[in-house]
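JOB MANIFEST
job_type = single_chain_structure
chain_count = 1
residues = 121
[input]
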Amino acid sequence: MSDSSHISVKRRQKRHTRVRKYVVGKTSRPRLCVFRSNRHIVAQIIDDSTGRTLAAASSLEAAIRGEGTGNTASAQRVGALLAERAKASGVEVVVFDRGGFRYHGRVAALAEAARAGGLEF
């Protein structure tokens, strides 16, 4: 890993730490956490009070992996799948944790698809 990419990862982690001071998932309102890499996007709904993952979806899954994974279309599919799984586990209201990433592009596409799928945040 080059020095410049290492620095950008450290900066994102620092931003994520700042965000997490305020964004906490509770049983009544769990946290929708997003991680974005160059190739994939992963989202989880986490109850921080119990430390359990209630629902998860990823572009690594076979259903999504076929049509390309590092674009906004796959992020939308992940968001819709996550909303469907969250509804199945009884979660309707979440708090959004963008993971130190800008609310733009794939992160925003995932969030909008999750909202369209019925999640409130």
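[summary]
Residues 3-116 form a domain with the Nucleotidyltransferase; domain 5 fold (CATH 3.30.420.100).
The first helix runs from residue 3 to 20.
exit_status = 0
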